[in-house]
Design brief:
Oligomer: heterodimer
Radius of gyration of chain A: 19 Å
Number of strands of chain A: 0
Largest interface: A-B, 34 and 38 residues
Structural class of chain A: mainly alpha
Helix content of chain B: over 70%
Number of domains of chain A: 1
Radius of gyration of chain B: 19 Å
Number of helices of chain A: 9
Mean pLDDT of chain B: 82
């Protein structure tokens, strides 16, 4: 049942520019580094930071914004498909359970984000090779710094999807999303327990894996909370 | 025209826009209180240091992004259940509807700017600043930032008329706003990038002889030029839009 639901969700997003955004996001993150390295290549060489190690970290500096903004847009979009056409009643009237509808939306966004993250890995690898960075290519490091933020951002995905589905007026989830982006922009100043800090992979123990674990655990918690609330609510 | 504004105001009052307006000062307070302002030397006016830090994040990301949310909110009522048909079947011209919505939007942005000014003041009071409040600088950056959003508001109104959902105009907004992070680092490019103007206008600069923090030529060509482009584009689009 869940497979079919996910397939219909993917059908609903066809020709709406969602795939374009999923490609544009990772491209944008790497494009910012193209500008960065295009303008300051000599400076990096001078500072002795023209290497894969610093390149991977430079790329991942912008990943949180793109990721959070992507989550905000996708979550609001997934909710507005049914909101706009008042199709919630029709969807729920089908022989599907409400939890599977919620899970399907969550999974669809998750798959799109995984797709975008894979692209991010490929794009950053490609541009890194093109730049001719010194040393061996640290494949593991590259994959880690692309995928860790995704797992660390799962609580934000849970939160945004929940509020996007609960509020009729999409202005609220998007405003809260903007709030989250600003918070992640100031991640350095934030206390470790705020979920918007986690995608930056920064914490006082300097252990990125901790953010990933927290992201998975708290992400599951927020997901369950949102789903139970969604089941409980009346369909408008 | 006046009655149109009035009816827009009534519609807006029921749309809970007030919560969105208060996000601005809240963000300002957060940045001001969380951020560390001890990095500035003692000679710098304490308010100046706080302003510099708060304005950067606020004008770089928040202000351009929130204009899109406001624009979509203003059009939300009509996008639902054939509201455009009802509104446009009244004895009003489409041009007037467009201009009214635009005026309402820039009024809302002004309200956000003034609320933000309040939060700047609150941050200072909480920190216990003793320096005199730099009235002219605050005035310049609050009003300057407001004027710099005029073209952004025009484009977002256009996009919100074009798309029914909130997410699509917001996506367009994000695509143009994120490059600002890089644009402001480049003297050549930043000056010509419309989305970088709010942060350039609000950024407390050295030269205080001008009325605003950017030269007049830049204000007129970049802000004025992009305003005309987006406003006329949106206006023409709306006149031909099939409802």
């Amino acid at each position: 049942m869940i497979g079919k639901l996910i397939r219909t969700d993917f059908m609903k997003i066809r020709r709406k520019g969602i795939w374009f955004l999923a490609i544009l996001g990772p491209f944008g993150v790497v494009a910012l580094q193209m500008v960065n390295y295009g303008l300051r290549k000599d400076w990096f060489i001078q500072q002795d930071t023209f290497s894969w190690f610093y390149y991977v970290r430079n790329v991942s500096a912008f990943t949180p914004f793109a990721l959070i903004l992507g989550i905000v847009i996708l979550a609001s979009f997934m909710a507005s498909i049914e909101n706009e056409t008042n199709a919630w009643k029709q969807l729920i009237a089908l022989p599907v359970s409400k939890w599977s509808v919620y899970l399907s939306k969550y999974t669809t966004i998750g798959l799109l984000l995984v797709f975008a993250t894979c692209l991010l890995t490929v794009f950053s690898l490609g541009f890194g090779v093109l730049l001719g960075l010194g040393g061996e290519i640290p494949y593991l490091d590259l994959i880690r710094y692309c995928f860790y933020p995704l797992f660390a951002a799962l609580p934000i995905l849970g939160l945004q999807l929940w509020i996007a589905l609960v509020f009729q007026n999409q202005g609220f989830p998007i405003t809260i999303g903007v709030f989250g982006v600003i918070m992640s922009y100031m991640a350095y100043f934030l206390p470790d327990w705020l979920i918007w800090k986690w995608p930056s992979l920064d914490n006082q123990w300097d252990e990125p894996l901790l953010n990933v674990c927290m992201g998975l655990v708290v992400g599951l918690g927020i997901y369950l909370f949102g789903m139970l609330d969604f089941i409980r609510r009346d369909v408008k | 025209m006046f009655s149109l504004l009035q009816s827009e105001w009534f519609k807006l009052r029921k749309s809970n826009v007030i919560y969105i307006l208060f996000a601005g000062p809240l963000i300002g307070l957060l940045i001001g209180l969380l951020g560390n302002d001890n990095v500035f030397p003692d000679e710098v006016n304490q308010w100046g240091g706080s302003l510099l830090m708060m304005n950067l994040t606020y004008a770089l990301l928040f202000l351009p992004l929130i204009t899109g949310v406001l624009a979509a909110t203003v059009c939300r009522y009509e996008h639902q259940a054939g509201g455009w048909k009802q509104l446009l079947s009244l004895p009003v011209t489409r041009g007037k509807v467009f201009i009214t919505k635009y005026l309402l939007l820039i009024f809302l942005v002004l309200a956000i700017q003034l609320l933000y000014l309040g939060s700047v003041f609150s941050v200072g009071v909480i920190h216990g600043y003793t320096d005199s409040f730099p009235m002219d600088i605050v005035w310049k950056s609050i009003l300057g930032g407001w004027i710099a959003t005029f073209p952004l508001v025009a484009l977002q109104l256009w996009m919100s008329l074009l798309f029914k959902s909130f997410a699509a105009p917001f996506a367009v907004n994000v695509i143009f706003t994120l490059p600002t992070i890089l644009a402001i680092n480049s003297e050549k490019f930043g000056a010509y990038y419309p989305w970088a103007q709010p942060v350039l206008m609000m950024n407390v600069g050295e030269d205080s002889n001008n009325v605003f923090f950017i030269p007049w030529e830049q204000l007129i060509t970049v802000v004025g030029g992009s305003f005309l482009l987006f406003f006329i584009g949106g206006y023409i689009y709306f006149r031909q839009k099939a409802v």
